[in-house]
Design a protein that fits this description.
The chain is of the alpha+beta class. The protein has two helices and 15 strands.
Length: 214
C-alpha cells in the first residue's frame, strides 16, 4: 500500500514538473498596441491606486509608496541598473523592495508586456500573469543587469494562443514599467437586448420587402 501511494505521488510530481508553461515569454509583441501610462497631475503620482486608464485597464499596488504616471525631474533609480528619465515616457514603479503592483484588464488579453527594469541589489523581480480566477498562467524572474545604463532595461512580455490574461503583476525589487503593450484584447461591445434584436429583425424585414417591391 505504501509503495503504491509512493509511486502515485512520484508520478504526479513527474507530471507536474513536465507540464509546459501556459504562455511564451517574449522580448517583443510586434502585433501589440502600446497603451501609454498617463502622467500624474503632480508628476510624482504616489499612491496605491486604483487608477483606471486606456481601454479598460486598472492599476493598483499593495503599497502606497508606489508611483503611477511618474515624470519626476530627478528620474527613477534602479541602483546598479541605472536611472530612468521618465519625462517622455511616464512610468509605474513599485518603489519598494517587497510588494506587488497589478494591471487588471476588464476583458482578457492574449499578450501583455512592457519595458521593465528593477534594482538587482534586492534580488530578482518577478513578472506574472493570471486568468480571471487568479490561476497562475506563467511567471518570469528578472535577473538582467545594465551596468548603470541610463534609460536601460528590457522588454519582457507573455503571449498566449487565446485571450485569457486578466491580471499582469510586477513584484519586488523596485521594479518599474513603461510602454505597457497589450495584444488581442477581447471586444467588450454590448450584446443587443432581445427587444433590440426584434427591432433590428423587423427593420431588416422591412428593407427586404421594399427591395422586392422595387
Amino acid at each position: 500500500m505504501k509503495r503504491t501511494v509512493l509511486l502515485a505521488a512520484m508520478t504526479l510530481a513527474a507530471i507536474t514538473a513536465a507540464a509546459p508553461a501556459r504562455a511564451t515569454v517574449v522580448s517583443a509583441l510586434p502585433d501589440g498596441v502600446i497603451v501609454p501610462i498617463p502622467p500624474a497631475s503632480d508628476t510624482l503620482g504616489f499612491g496605491a491606486g486604483p487608477v483606471s486608464f486606456g481601454p479598460g485597464i486598472t492599476w493598483t499596488s499593495t503599497t502606497a509608496s508606489s508611483v503611477f504616471g511618474y515624470t519626476g525631474a530627478f528620474g527613477y533609480g534602479f541602483d546598479g541598473n541605472g536611472l530612468w528619465n521618465s519625462l517622455l515616457f511616464p512610468m509605474a514603479g513599485l518603489n519598494d523592495s517587497e510588494a506587488t503592483m497589478t494591471f487588471a484588464f476588464d476583458s482578457p488579453v492574449a499578450g501583455v508586456g512592457g519595458f521593465v527594469n528593477y534594482s538587482p541589489s534586492f534580488g530578482p523581480a518577478t513578472l506574472a500573469i493570471y486568468d480571471g480566477s487568479m490561476n497562475l498562467l506563467d511567471s518570469v524572474s528578472l535577473t538582467f543587469t545594465t551596468d548603470l545604463q541610463f534609460n536601460g532595461g528590457e522588454f519582457v512580455g507573455f503571449l498566449l494562443d487565446t485571450p485569457e490574461i486578466r491580471y499582469f503583476t510586477l513584484s519586488d525589487s523596485y521594479v518599474g514599467v513603461t510602454q505597457l503593450t497589450v495584444q488581442d484584447m477581447v471586444s467588450t461591445a454590448p450584446v443587443p437586448e432581445p427587444g433590440s434584436l426584434l427591432l433590428l429583425g423587423a427593420g431588416l424585414a422591412g428593407l427586404a420587402k421594399r427591395k422586392r417591391r422595387a
